[in-house]
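USER: For my understanding, would you kindly supply a protein sequence with its structure tokens?

ASSISTANT:
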Amino acid sequence: MMLLRRLARRKTSLIAFLFLILVVLIAIGAPLIVRGNLDDQNLGQRLKPPGFHDDSGKVYTLGTDQLGRDLVPRLIYGARVSLLVGLSSVTLGGGIGLVLGLISGFYGGKVDAFIMRIADIQLAFPFLLLALALVSILGPSLLNVILVLSLTSWISYAKVIRGAVLSVRNREFVEAARALGATGGRIIRQHVLPNVFSSFLVIASCEAAALIIAESSLSYLGLGVPTSVPTWGGMLADGREYITDAWWIALVPGLTLMATALSFNILGDGARDALDPTQRNNRK
């Protein structure tokens, strides 16, 4: 609650937070908002501009695509996929990175060296290239995309959390817990984790934006979720051939994707300032 109150004092963070809440509510309520079949095609109404009215009086607020499909329901259902992939990948990849970062930073020695060498080896491969290779091997599906993005994003969490743990593990309250006979696991849970969790929240909010863009990139290349499932990246791919004649097909999902990713980044920046006393003082 304290974090939310501090975020509310920053207009940009508050706007970003409210926008993301709106996107989440729209995604959750998609079945109630969208009526009919979002895959209904009408080639006689293909590439119609935003605001087009058909003979029955139906308004196509954002226009139609190359198959005559209404862009609004596809945009709404695309939000479900992007948010599901982004938040699920952050939860799974962040959980892996958090655990490995805590173990690596707290125990040090050979354990630390082993985990960090694995991270360094994985960092030698470009993130998107590695994701493309794994998706190509596993095949395009929603579950595979989440697994691939999780397994390629844990390093960021692990390295940041490890650095935060290194600055905490030798402090007085940790040494006092050791002197009282507390086990390593208990010290991590009760003393170390609460002091580094704010760093995890900040990087998770920023990683959510990166993973949503990564999912859209994979869908744009045809290696994300199946083409039968509407995604913002897939809509961008559909519109690339009609960018001069029907710009709205690519522009609408592109702007939505940009606004969502930007909101996550702004929220992450606001969370960093709210949780870091030095940043709060500098902003004042």
